[in-house]
Amino acid sequence: MVKGEQAYINLCKYILQSGTKKEDRTNTGTYSVFGQQMRFDLSEGFPILTTKKVPFKLVASELLWFIKGDTNIRYLLENKNNIWNEWAFEKWVDSNEYTGPDMTNFGNRSQQDPEFNKLYQSQMDLFKEKVLTDNDFARKFGDLGSVYGKQWRQWKTSQNETIDQLKEVIESIRTNPDSRRHIVSAWNPEDIPTMALPPCHTLFQFYVADGKLSCQLYQRSADVFLGVPFNIASYALLTHLIAHECNLEVGEFVHTLGDAHIYTNHIEQVNMQLGRDRRSLPKLVINKEKDSIFDFELTDFELINYNPHPSIKAPIAV
Q: Which of 73, 79, 153, 275 could bond 69 through an S-S bridge, CB–CB 3.0 to 4.6 Å?
C-alpha cells in the first residue's frame, strides 16, 4: 500500500493520462475513469491532503451535520460552513418566490462574468441571511430534502417506520464484531426525487479484525479535485469516532470510486497541486471524555502538526 496521500496523487495522474472525455449534467465536462480504489492506513496519520489545505473544520462540521440527521443548511451556516449553499440556493432562485436578477446557470456564469459574479454574490449573501434569520424561509429553502443525514438516521420503511442505521451499525459493531452486515446506505431510490443532490457517497461498510476498525466507502460519483479530499477526511474521521465509541483501534479507510472524474475547469488546479511536494500527515486528537459520537461538538476534535501547502480554489459544478 502506498503511503499517505500518494494514492490520491496517483489517482489524479491516472485520470489526467487515461481519462475519457465525457459530458455531464452540469454541462462542464469531465475527464473520467471508472472503478478505482484508494487505501489509507489510519495508524500512519490522519489522511487529510497536504499538497493543498483542506479546511478540517468544514469537514468536521459537515460530518456532525450528517450524524445529527440534519438536512437543513442553517446548522452549517451557523458554523460558517458554505459547502452546501449552492444546492439550496438553486432551489430558491428556481422558485416562484424569487424575484431577483436571473440566476440561470449561476455556477458557470459566476466564474466567467465578473459583473454577474457581483450580482450572484449579493443574492447569495441575501439568501444566507434569510436562512439564518427567517424560520419559515429556512424551512422552505434551507432544507435539502432526504439527503445523507436523513438516510443515516431516519431511513423510511414501507411500514411508515424509520431505521436509525448509524445507531444500529454501532451497536452491531459492539455486539457482533465479526458480522459482515455493518453497512449504512444513503442510496434510497424512493427518496431520490426529494433530494437536492442524490448521494455521491452511497454506502459504507465497517470491518473489525485484530481489535481494529476499518471502513470501506463506495462512492458512485467522485469530483476528485474538490469533493474527494473532503470525503477521505470525513470518513476517516467517522471511522476514528466509531472506533473510539466501540473501544477499538483504527485500521484502514478504503475508498472505492465508481465514476472518478476531474472537471475540465479543474485541470490547471490539479496540475498545480501535482507540482507540490507531499508533507507528513497530521495526528487527530479526540476528546476522550465523550463516549458517544452523538455527543461530539466541533471543539472536541483537533489536528496536530497539520502543515499543508496553501489551498487552491476552483469552481464548483452544480
A: 153
**pTM across the whole model:** 0.94
pLDDT per residue over 22-66, tens digit each? Answer: 988 877 899 999 999 999 999 999 999 999 999 999 999 999 999
pLDDT at residue 318, rounded to an integer: 61
Judge: domain 6-72+145-304, CATH 3.40.50.300. no
Annotated active-site residue 12? The verdict is no
Does 279 belong to an annotated binding site? no
Mark the ranges of the chain whose per-residue pLDDT is less than 70: 1, 317-318
Strand order in the sheet with 212-223: 20-22, 30-41, 249-263, 212-223, 201-209, 183-185
- Domain map of the chain by residue range? 6-72+145-304, 85-143
Q: Please give the grid coordinates belonging to residue 56.
A: 478540517
Using CA atoms, how far residue 270 sits from 6, 123, 138, 202, in Å, is: 14, 30, 36, 25
